Amino acid sequence: MDNLGDILKETRQQRQLSQLEIATDICSQSTLSEIEHNKYIPNMQLLINICQRLSIDLYDLSLVNSFKICKDNYSNAKINRLYSSRNYQALQNFLNRPTVIELVQTSKQTQAYYYYLAICALHLENKFDNAKELLKLSLASTEHNRKQTVLSRIGNITLAYVYSRQGLKNSAYRQISLAFKKFDRATYDENLNVVFYLASLSYYELSKYDLAIKMIENGIDFIQENESHSMLLNSFLLMANIAEAIKNEPKNVPITKEYHFFNNFLHERNAYRSNELVQ
């Protein structure tokens, strides 16, 4: 499932929404049907509006595989359920229970524990200082292995995103570099899709649009090459937002790519996939 239309259709069905419910006040139902059947490629604003109706949040992170904070299956399952449902307040409350804290034993579990607390802080607090410190605690909890784990890469890139929201460009760049260190040697894990997405989002927050475009294009390639679609719709949405930001930039701001790169990219991909099907 590589095409944008297929992903939009699957997401709509998962939300148990009809085409009419999605299309109302956005576009005609027939237009949405053509999009879902890959006969029509939406422009950036139309895609943004559809994603909003589908409750796809630009700043929402989705992990395919959860990380365990202890040996207790009930606690791990509850954390995964609360995280997946975006119930960050309940997740934070659960993680702060003394009985749950006592279950965290190993360095790997400690790393996951602080990471989930950092995600809660990221979504629940206006300031990012607490999330930043929790991410640092998560990364400090890792065993000093030469090979960077999936969670370590995610921790580094999430910290880069926090730095970008605080306007700390050099710190963000450093964390992005750490997240991608020897990335080509990493064994594929669907959670790694998030690394490209957050790197692009970090550049986007810093108004480094050329870097954001390059990173999100690489991320979409990475996702599709590994026959995944986790974070794919989010990636298309981010690409549309980058294009919209470029469109609204003052004329005197030097940007290598024009905002219509979004439509060009989708048209090229759609044509490529169509040719594959014909062959």
Automatic annotation (TrEMBL):
Residues 8-61 form the HTH cro/C1-type domain. It comes from Companilactobacillus halodurans. This is Helix-turn-helix transcriptional regulator. GO terms for molecular function: DNA binding. It comes from the Bacteria.
